[in-house]
Amino acid sequence: MATVAELDETVRAAREAACEDLVLLKCTSTYPATPENSNLLTIPHLRELFDVQVGLSDHTMGVGAAVASVALGATVIEKHFTLARADGGVDSTFLMEPQEMAQLMI
């Protein structure tokens, strides 16, 4: 939900503080997010604008958006995880269970 100017200010501050391992994560704040509103093309755009590693904070169901993000240059994937989706929670609809995480790691 940050503007490009806010991201620029953040990246500059991190670099001025000698941060050498900066990763920006593209995130859509919808829970769950749909692949259509995830705007994954932001990933290469952010990498080009700021010359940093870029990843995805993924709130979609399944692994499709995460896999697509890697094809677009993502080097980090963040997914919400649970041992059992049936345990519930505010994000339970898109939590990854162990067998799904295994698919993502292949």
UniProtKB/TrEMBL annotation:
Protein name: N-acetylneuraminate synthase family protein
Pfam families the record matches: NeuB (PF03102)
Gene3D superfamilies listed in its UniProt record: Aldolase class I
Domain (PseI/NeuA/B-like) ranges: 1-105
Domain of life: Bacteria
